[in-house]
Design a protein that fits this description.
Elements lengths: L1 H23 L2 E8 L5 E8 L1 H4 L12 E7 L4 E7 L9 E2 L3 E4 L3 E4 L4 E5 L6 E5 L2
Antiparallel strand pairs: 1-2, 2-3, 3-4, 5-6, 6-7, 7-8, 8-9
Length: 129
């Protein structure tokens, strides 16, 4: 009898925690950056969780996130992590693609992108799918 109560309690707890976790770890768009020629868009996002954590005025850009670049047909050209979403404001559109200083770069012509890992010790290269 006692084992069944624990099982039911665990099942109820899981059924309450799983939707909350899905909600909190859903990425939400923070802002977009358009290329000057209009052919590419960088979408900056972060987990909803970070909106629930109090911060001082002006510190919203300190939350971690991701930047993903899309072409005109809405095809992803790759995404990379950002220590803070404010870093995406340094995105530069260059002839071959785009780059963010101290984060990484995209080469649209050759179909790859590269970014530094978390401890800045290794450059991670990925092909655009």
């Amino acid at each position: 009898m006692w084992g069944m109560r624990k099982f039911v309690s665990a099942l109820i707890g899981l059924s309450l925690c799983a939707p909350a976790a899905l909600y909190l770890f859903t990425p939400i768009e923070q802002f977009r950056l358009q290329s000057p020629d209009g052919n590419h868009t960088a979408v900056v996002s972060s987990f909803r969780l970070w909106q629930w954590i109090p911060s001082l005025p002006g510190d919203a850009g300190d939350m971690p996130g991701r930047v993903e670049i899309f072409d005109k047909s809405n095809t992803s050209l790759g995404s990379m992590p950002l220590t803070t979403i404010a870093m995406a404001r340094d995105l530069q559109w260059i002839e071959q693609g785009a780059r963010i200083r101290l984060v990484g770069s995209w080469n649209f012509q050759q179909g790859f992108y590269a970014y530094w890992n978390d401890d800045q010790s290794q450059l991670v290269f990925k092909q655009v799918n």
